[in-house]
Amino acid sequence: MSLRLSALLLVLGLFGALTAVALLDVGYFGILKPHFQSWGAGQVLADLSILGVLACFWMIQDARERGLKAWPFVILTLVAGSFGPLCYLVLRCLKADRREFPQA
Q1: What is the pLDDT of residues 3-55, one digit of tens each?
Q2: Where in the sequence is the domain holding 37, given as residue range(s)?
Q3: d(Cα 93, Cα 73) in Å, to the nearest integer?
Q4: How far is Cα of residue 20 from the mean position of the Cα atoms in its chain?
Q5: Are 2 and 93 in contact (CB under 8 A)?
Q6: How many structural domains compose the chain?
Q7: Cβ of 4: how many Cβ atoms within 10 Å?
Q8: Which site among 21, 25, 31, 71 is 20 to 30 Å from 101 CA-CA?
C-alpha cells in the first residue's frame, strides 16, 4: 500500500469518526444549523460550498482523463461534503496502484 493511499485512508477514517460523533450528537441538520446563525458562520458555509462545487468540476475532468466515473462521487459530495473527493482520491489511488502493479 502506498504512502499516499495510507494517508488518504487515515484522513478518511478520522474525518469519518468525527462526522459520526457530530451526527450522533446533533444530527444532519444540527451540523448545518449554526451556519445560518451569524455572518461569519455563513461565510464558512459559502466557502465550503464553493470548494465542494470546484471539487466536483475537478473530479469530472479528472475522471474523464482517467476513464473513471465521477457521478457517484459528485452525488456524495453534494450530500456529504468532503467524503466525495476523499473517496474519489482513494479510488483513483487504488486504480493507479493496479496499473503500476498488475496481478499475475
Answers
A1: 999 999 999 999 999 999 999 999 999 999 999 999 999 999 999 999 999 99
A2: 3-100
A3: 14
A4: 15
A5: yes
A6: 1
A7: 14
A8: 71
Task: Name the pLDDT band for 101 (thresholds 50, 70, 90).
Answer: low
74, three cell numbers: 459528485
Degrees to nearest 5, angle at CA 81 with 79 and 87: 100
Q: How far apart are CA 37 and CA 19, in angstroms?
A: 21
41-78 b/e (C-beta count within 10 Å ≥ 16 → b): eeeeeeeeeeebeebbeebeeebeeeeeebeebbebbe
Q: Supply 46's cell numbers.
A: 459559502
Summarize the confidence of residues 75-88 as an average pLDDT.
96
Question: Count of alpha carbons within 13 Å of 78, Cβ hemisphere only?
Answer: 8
Distances (CA, A) of 51 to 21, 25, 84, 96: 23, 26, 12, 25
Cell numbers at 90, concatenated: 482513494
Choose among 16, 13, 1: nearest CA to 81: 16
Number of H helices, E strands in the chain: 4, 0
